[in-house]
């Protein structure tokens, strides 16, 4: 069982108050909402579920686990950055990762060079001897929560509906964390094509609130 200290540390890392700027990124969803593809609770849930299971969610969990199991995360980080499907998605990973590394180094004293966000989280969890499974599950839930928060603001969607969606994704987050725990980067895959395309379309979107 994870210790209370580990749980509280991870809760702090994945809190909206942790200054990595996750509120500023939509992962391309702003374009999907603008064009009507995501417009209610059902379509938002389908979008986020596919991103988690078939897109960046599963891949991020693999990168996190690979960094956790590595003695040097630089190779993992290079692969993670190369796997970004668009300019904005690379920026999203790099800027959040750099911000996470900076604040985590300052508070916990870890050696955290700039890395893509999932790699930085995995490396920090290893340095802090935090449980991989819980780290991965909470990372995925935080990722899902950030995307659903975009939908809550832009669709708009009520808070109760949004939090029902977040709660409903808990089993999926657990399953993905279990499936990716070996950190096997040969298992990387991406078949959630529309979110990738949406991130490219967002680059030239005329009016936008989010950075990605």
Could you describe the 3D structure shown?
There is one protein chain. This protein is mostly helical and 212 residues long. The protein has one domain (21-202): Urease accessory protein UreF, CATH 1.10.4190. It is built from eleven helices and no strands. 45% of the residues are buried. The model has no long low-confidence stretch (mean pLDDT 96).
Structure, briefly:
The protein has eleven helices and no strands.
Terminal Cα span: 37 Å
Tell me how many strands there are: 0
Structural class: mainly alpha
Query: Beta-sheet strand percentage?
Result: under 5%
Query: What's the level 1 CATH class?
Result: Mainly Alpha
The CATH fourth-level homologous superfamily: Urease accessory protein UreF
The helical percent reads 55-70%
Give the count of structural domains.
Answer: 1
Gross CATH architecture: Orthogonal Bundle
pLDDT below 50 for ≥5 consecutive residues: which ranges? Answer: none
Number of alpha- plus pi-helical segments: 11
Rg value = 16 Å
Strand and helix layout:
Blueprint lengths: L3 H10 L15 H6 L6 H14 L1 H13 L5 H9 L4 H22 L8 H11 L4 H23 L4 H10 L1 H10 L13 H10 L10
Helix pairs in contact: 3-4, 3-8, 4-7, 4-8, 6-7, 7-8, 8-9, 8-10
Descriptors:
single chain, globular, 11 helices, 212 residues, mainly alpha, Urease accessory protein UreF
């Amino acid at each position: 069982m994870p210790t209370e200290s580990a749980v509280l540390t991870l809760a702090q890392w994945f809190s909206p108050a942790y200054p990595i700027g996750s509120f500023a990124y939509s992962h391309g969803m702003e374009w999907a909402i603008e064009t009507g593809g995501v417009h209610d609770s059902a379509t938002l849930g389908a979008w986020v579920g596919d991103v988690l299971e078939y897109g960046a969610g599963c891949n991020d969990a693999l990168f996190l686990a690979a960094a956790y199991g590595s003695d040097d995360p630089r190779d993992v980080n290079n692969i993670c950055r190369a796997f970004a499907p668009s300019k904005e998605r690379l920026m999203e990973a790099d800027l959040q990762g750099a911000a996470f590394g900076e604040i985590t180094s300052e508070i916990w004293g870890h050696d955290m060079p700039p890395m893509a966000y999932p790699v930085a989280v995995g490396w920090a969890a290893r340095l802090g001897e935090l449980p991989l499974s819980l780290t991965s599950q909470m990372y995925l839930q935080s990722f899902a929560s950030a995307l659903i928060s975009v939908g809550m603001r832009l669709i708009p969607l009520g808070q109760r509906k949004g939090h029902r969606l977040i709660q409903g994704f808990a089993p999926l987050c657990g399953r993905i964390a279990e499936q990716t725990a070996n950190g096997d980067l040969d298992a990387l895959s991406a078949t959630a094509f529309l979110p990738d395309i949406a991130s490219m379309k967002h680059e030239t979107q005329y009016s936008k609130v989010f950075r990605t």
